C-alpha cells in the first residue's frame, strides 16, 4: 500500500505551477527604445510570484520555434542554456536572475519598472558568464517566459509571451535623394524673370535700331513759341 | 511746350526716384547677403558636405550685384539729369548685365533650396556622422556641426531618434546598438554635458531624451536664407525692370 501512495506523491512533487501571467513588452510609459535592433523591454513580473519567496526567478529567452521544446529542468548557467551559444547551439538561454525581493508588490505608482533584455554588452563574448544578459543576435522573433527555481527544481512558470520581433535596419543607400520636385515659387521666379529679361533685351535692340535713324527723332533743341501751337510737331 | 516739358520733368523725376530706390535696395541686398555668407547658424559645413552649397554662391553674387546696383543707380541719376544719351546707353547696358547676374542668383537660390530635402540631410548624417578612420575633413566638420546642432536645439537626428534605429550608419559601426541606440547628444544633458539619466535615455523614457528631429532647426535658417536672396532679388529686379523701361523711353525722347 505504501508503493501506490509513493507513486501518487512523486508526480505531485514534480508538478510545476503555471502562473497566470504572460510576459509582455512595456506599454506604459511609451518608450522610444521599446524594441531596438538588439534589445527589447519587458514589464517586471510584479505581484506574480508572491508565493515563491525562496525561489530564484529567471527569464528564459527562446527562439520562437524553440519555445515549445524548452525543457524546464535545464539548469541556468550550464552550457545548454548559456547566452554565448545562442542561437546556434543553444535554442533558449536563461538570464536576469532575481528574487521576489527585487519585484516588490504592489508596484509604486509612478515608478518605471522594466527589464531591458540585451543591455549587457561587456559579457556577451565571455564564456565564463553564461547567464549574461547580452544583446540579441538578430531580429528574432523571440518568446520569453519567467521560470521560478527553488534550488535546481522548477516550481513555477509563466506563459510564453507572444512572439517579439526586433527592428531591422536598412542601409542608408536605400534613401532616395533624387526625386525632388520644384516648388511653385521657383517656377514663378524663373518664368517671370525670363520674360522680363526678354522684354528688356527687345527694348535694348529697339533702342539701338531706333538710334540708327536719327532723322525721325531729331527735334530742334531750341523751344520757340511756335511749338506751343503745334504740339504734334514734337515727336 | 510747357505741357510736354512738364511731362519730361515728371519722367525725369520718376526716373531719379526709381534710381534712388534701386541704390538703396542695392545696399540692402549687399547687407543681407553679407549676413548670410557670414554663416550665422553654423550650417555651412552641412551644405558644403552635400556638394550643394550653391545657395552660398547665390549670396556671394548678391553682394556684388548689390554694390553694382548702387553704383549704377548713381550713374543713372547723373545721366537722367544731364539728359546725356551716351551715359544713359552705358547705364542701360550695364544694368542689363547686372540684371542677368541677379536673375541667375535668384534662380540658383530657389532651385537649390528645393533640393535640400530631409532625405538629403538624413543620408549625409548617416554616412558621415562619427565616421571612424578614414574620416575626411568634411566628415569631421559634419560630426562637429551635428553635435552642436543637437546640443543647442535639443533635437536628435533629422526626423527623430528612430533615424538611428531604422537605418544602419557609420555611427552604428563603432557604437553598438545596445549601448547606443542613439548618440549621447540625443540625451537630456546636465551642466557638465553628461546625460541626466543614461538608462532613461537608452530606454527612451520621455523627458530623458530629445524626441524631435533637427530638420526644422536646419530648414528654418536655410529657407530664410534662400528665400531672402531669391524673393528680395526678384522684387528688386521687378522694380529695376520698370525703371529700365522708363529710362529706355526717356532715352528715345532725348533731343539728339
UniProtKB/TrEMBL annotation, chain A:
InterPro entries recorded: Uroplakin-3
The regions listed as transmembrane in this protein's record are 184-211
Write out the GO cellular component annotations: membrane
Plastid as a keyword?
A: no
Task: State the UniProt keywords alphabetically.
Answer: Membrane, Signal, Transmembrane, Transmembrane helix
Write down the superkingdom of origin: Eukaryota
Q: Does the keyword Transmembrane apply?
A: yes
Task: Tell me which positions the record assigns to the signal sequence.
Answer: 1-15
Which named protein is this?
Answer: UPK3B protein
Protein source organism: Machaerirhynchus nigripectus
Taxonomy of the source species? Eukaryota, Metazoa, Chordata, Craniata, Vertebrata
From TrEMBL, chain B:
Q: Which Gene3D superfamilies match?
A: Tetraspanin
| PANTHER family listed in its UniProt record | TESTIS-SPECIFIC EXPRESSED PROTEIN 55 (PTHR47110), UROPLAKIN-1B (PTHR47110:SF2)
Q: Which family does it belong to?
A: Belongs to the tetraspanin (TM4SF) family.
Pfam assignment, any one: Tetraspanin
What does the record note on quaternary structure?
Heterodimer with uroplakin-3A (UPK3A) or uroplakin-3B (UPK3B).
User: Keyword annotations for this protein?
Assistant: Membrane, Transmembrane, Transmembrane helix
Protein name stated in the entry = Tetraspanin
Does the keyword Membrane feature in the UniProt annotation?
yes
Compartments it resides in: Membrane
List, alphabetically, the SUPFAM superfamilies matched.
Tetraspanin
The domain of life is Eukaryota
GO cellular component, alphabetical, reads: membrane
**Chain segments annotated as transmembrane:** 12-37, 57-81, 88-110, 229-251
Q: Where is the signal peptide?
A: none
Q: Which InterPro entries match?
A: Tetraspanin/Peripherin, Tetraspanin_animals, Tetraspanin_EC2_sf
Identify its membrane topology class.
Multi-pass membrane protein
Amino acid at each position: 500500500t505504501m508503493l501506490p501512495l509513493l507513486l501518487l506523491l512523486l508526480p505531485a512533487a514534480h508538478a510545476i505551477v503555471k502562473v497566470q501571467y504572460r510576459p509582455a513588452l512595456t506599454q506604459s510609459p511609451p518608450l522610444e527604445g521599446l524594441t531596438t535592433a538588439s534589445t527589447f523591454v519587458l514589464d517586471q513580473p510584479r505581484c506574480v510570484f508572491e508565493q515563491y519567496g525562496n525561489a530564484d526567478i529567471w527569464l528564459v529567452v527562446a527562439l520562437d520555434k524553440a519555445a515549445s521544446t524548452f525543457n524546464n529542468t535545464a539548469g541556468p548557467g550550464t552550457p545548454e542554456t548559456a547566452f554565448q551559444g545562442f542561437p546556434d547551439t543553444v535554442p533558449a538561454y536563461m538570464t536576469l536572475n532575481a528574487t521576489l525581493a527585487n519585484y516588490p508588490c504592489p508596484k509604486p505608482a509612478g515608478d518605471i519598472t522594466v527589464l531591458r533584455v540585451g543591455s549587457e554588452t561587456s559579457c556577451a563574448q565571455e564564456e565564463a558568464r553564461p547567464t549574461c544578459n547580452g544583446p540579441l543576435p538578430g531580429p528574432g522573433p523571440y518568446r520569453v517566459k519567467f521560470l521560478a527555481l527553488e534550488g535546481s527544481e522548477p516550481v513555477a512558470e509563466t506563459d510564453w509571451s507572444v512572439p517579439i520581433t526586433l527592428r531591422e535596419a536598412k542601409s542608408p543607400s536605400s534613401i532616395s535623394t533624387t526625386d525632388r520636385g520644384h516648388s511653385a515659387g521657383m517656377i514663378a521666379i524663373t518664368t517671370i524673370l525670363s520674360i522680363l529679361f526678354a522684354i528688356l533685351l527687345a527694348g535694348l535692340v529697339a533702342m539701338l535700331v531706333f538710334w540708327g535713324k536719327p532723322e525721325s527723332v531729331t527735334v530742334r533743341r531750341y523751344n520757340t513759341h511756335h511749338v506751343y501751337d503745334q504740339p504734334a510737331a514734337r515727336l | 511746350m510747357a505741357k510736354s516739358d512738364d511731362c519730361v520733368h515728371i519722367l525725369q523725376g520718376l526716373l531719379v526716384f526709381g534710381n534712388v530706390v534701386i541704390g538703396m535696395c542695392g545696399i540692402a541686398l549687399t547687407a543681407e547677403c553679407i549676413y548670410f555668407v557670414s554663416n550665422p547658424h553654423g550650417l555651412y559645413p552641412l551644405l558644403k558636405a552635400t556638394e550643394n552649397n550653391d545657395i552660398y554662391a547665390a549670396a556671394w553674387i548678391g553682394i556684388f550685384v548689390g554694390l553694382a546696383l548702387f553704383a549704377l543707380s548713381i550713374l543713372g541719376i547723373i545721366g537722367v539729369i544731364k539728359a546725356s544719351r551716351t551715359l544713359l546707353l552705358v547705364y542701360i547696358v550695364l544694368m542689363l548685365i547686372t540684371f542677368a547676374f541677379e536673375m541667375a542668383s535668384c534662380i540658383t537660390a530657389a532651385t537649390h533650396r528645393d533640393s535640400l530635402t530631409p532625405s538629403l540631410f538624413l543620408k549625409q548624417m548617416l554616412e558621415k556622422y562619427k565616421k571612424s578612420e578614414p574620416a575626411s575633413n568634411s566628415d569631421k566638420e559634419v560630426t562637429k556641426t551635428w553635435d552642436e546642432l543637437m546640443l543647442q536645439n535639443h533635437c536628435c537626428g533629422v526626423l527623430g531618434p528612430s533615424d538611428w534605429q531604422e537605418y544602419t550608419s557609420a555611427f552604428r559601426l563603432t557604437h553598438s546598438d545596445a549601448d547606443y541606440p542613439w548618440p549621447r547628444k540625443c540625451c537630456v544633458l546636465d551642466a557638465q554635458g553628461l546625460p541626466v539619466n543614461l538608462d532613461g535615455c537608452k530606454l527612451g523614457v520621455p523627458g530623458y531624451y530629445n524626441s524631435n528631429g533637427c530638420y526644422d532647426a536646419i530648414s528654418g535658417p536655410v529657407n530664410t536664407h534662400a528665400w531672402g536672396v531669391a524673393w528680395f532679388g526678384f522684387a528688386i529686379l521687378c522694380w529695376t525692370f520698370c525703371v529700365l523701361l522708363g529710362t529706355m523711353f526717356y532715352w528715345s525722347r532725348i533731343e539728339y
